[in-house]
Structures are given as structure tokens and as C-alpha cells.
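Retro notes - structure team

What went well: the batch runner handled both jobs without manual restarts.
What didn't: labels got mixed up in the shared folder, which is why I'm recording both outputs here explicitly, each with its sequence directly above its C-alpha cells.

Job 1
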Amino acid sequence: MHQEHQGDNPTHSNSATLISELGEIYGFRFVRFVLALPEPWEVGDAIGSQQSDVANVLYSWYQAVQDMDPPNRWINLTTLATRRMVSDKQSNASFLRSLCGGRMEVPRRENDDVFNVLAEYARDVYPAFLIDRPGEGKVPQSPFATPDEQGGNLDFYRAVLRDAQLKYLFPEELSKDPEALDREALYAVRSLVYFEVGQGGTFQLPLLAFSLLNSAYSRCVVAGDDSFDAYIAAVAQNLSDARSLGGWEGGECSADPRTVKRFYLRD
């Protein structure tokens, strides 16, 4: 039996229709995660008023991009999910999940600024990985999620350059004070890197978080568990791997101080 309309809350039937449409747009894994729907919940079951409000927000995102072709619509929806527009502390999608009572806590480590910022990035981008990709058109072949430009990125860059191991991934910066580097200087930090198989190129500091976050999700998919907890654990493992390649443990400085040998981020 359908619930009757009460006040500003939509009817049960309208909510069910909205959830079904959102499932077609985003995929039900994303919808279930953001709305913090319990495992027993099925399409057609009632949702709370707060979840209904959040569902309408998600539909408004779709309305803003519905005239785009599917690949561009997908890219814009993932971008909306990861931006910090409604909160300066977390991404839109993670904030909406918290409104619905969903857990979004991430671990923190004392005296580890790199991990603490990276864990917040991971919390912010995770929901975007759950959005269904379009089955047609040209879309990125690898996972596609990036933290918000306003999400403490300069703090992250400086923390990397202060880190006892990661700083050796950018050997040309070793003599510089990270706190004295402005946005432009931090964005220009890079290394010449090559792999043991012989390939190489330029690796930029602004791409470090992007690489760690996206390759972590790939690892989860390969392992068969891309839950939120598994993803946070994979990000932590990726950071550990990167650290093992920096400093004196895995990265070697060549005659060219800008070059780091044997650098890689393992999927």
C-alpha cells in the first residue's frame, strides 16, 4: 500500500519512481551508498524524508547535465560528486551520505600529514567510483576520480616534500623549504622517472594523489572487494608502497638530480 502525501514529503510511490530513475542515471550502488540505504532495502521500499531530500539533490545534478552526451555527462556527474561545494570539509557526495546517517569516518595517524590528507581525499572520491560508466562513447579507461582543488592540496604537496621518504621522489626539491613554495612553484614540482623495464617520463607532484587514489581502486577491483573500508585500506597500502620507493629504501638518485630510478606505483 502506498503512503499518502504528508506535508512536504513526497509519496512513497513518487520516492520509488525517483530512486528507480536515479538508479538508471548513476547506478544503484552509488545511490545506495549516498543515501545510506540498508542492505535489506529494495526498490519500492520507503525512504526517510532526509533521504528523499538528498535524492532530489542527486536528480538536480542530473538535470544540470542531462543534455550532454553520455561520456561528458558521466564525467560531470563524477566531478559534482567529488567537489566541495556544500561543505568545505568534505565532498558533495560524502556530505550528502552523512546527512543520511551514513558512516564516512576515515582513520588518522599521529604525525602523518600525508596520510591524513590522503585519507580525506579517499573519502571524498570513493562515491564517484560507484557511478556507472556509459556503455558507449569515449570515456577514460582507468578509474577517474580526483580530489577537489580546494581540498587542502597545497597542504598535501608541502607534506609530501617534508615526508622523510616521499621527498626523495622529487630530489631536485630536497634543498628547498616546502613552506616557502607558493602555489605556482608547488604545481611545477616534478621528477624525471623511469621504470626498470626501460620506460620513463615526467612525474608531477600534483599527480601523486590522483595516482595513489585511482590505482588503489584498481587494486580493489582486482582483489574482488571495492567496499569503502577495502578502498581506504588500499589507499594506505599504496602510500606505503610509494614511501618504500622513496628515501633510501627504493628510489635511487642518478647523476641527474632530477631523476628517480625504479619508481613505480603498483596497481
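Job 2
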Amino acid sequence: MNISLEQAIEIHARALVQRHKGKAPSNARVYADRLNGHRDCDGCAVWLGVASAAERILDEKCAAEDLGAKQGEV
């Protein structure tokens, strides 16, 4: 089974969010910085993508929780 880079980024982001919750984006950025320090520009770009995806996932979860709380108030 082949997966695209975008799918791999999404999978890693979801795993990081599951494991590290709100710290997932910053953890991904730390790893990106480490790769950048080793002059791995491609790896750095991928992990910055993971950080962005993790932020999006956390925002979606937060929005869903807010919606659920508002529906419960009615």
C-alpha cells in the first residue's frame, strides 16, 4: 500500500496529538528545528507540515467540544 506525503503527515500529526495532546505542534517544531540544524531541509519542511496539521486537528477538536458544550446548554 502506498500513501502520499500528505497522508503520512496527517497520520503523524494525529498520532502526535493522541500522544502529546496540546504539545504536539511544538514537539513537531522542535524536531523540525533539529532536522534543520542537520541541514535536512526536506525533513524540516515535512515536520513543519506535521506541526501545522497537528494545530488544525487540535483546533477542530476544540471547535467540536465547544459545539457540544453549546448544544448541551440548550
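One thing worth noting from job 2: Residues 5-73 form one domain.
We'll revisit the folder naming next retro.
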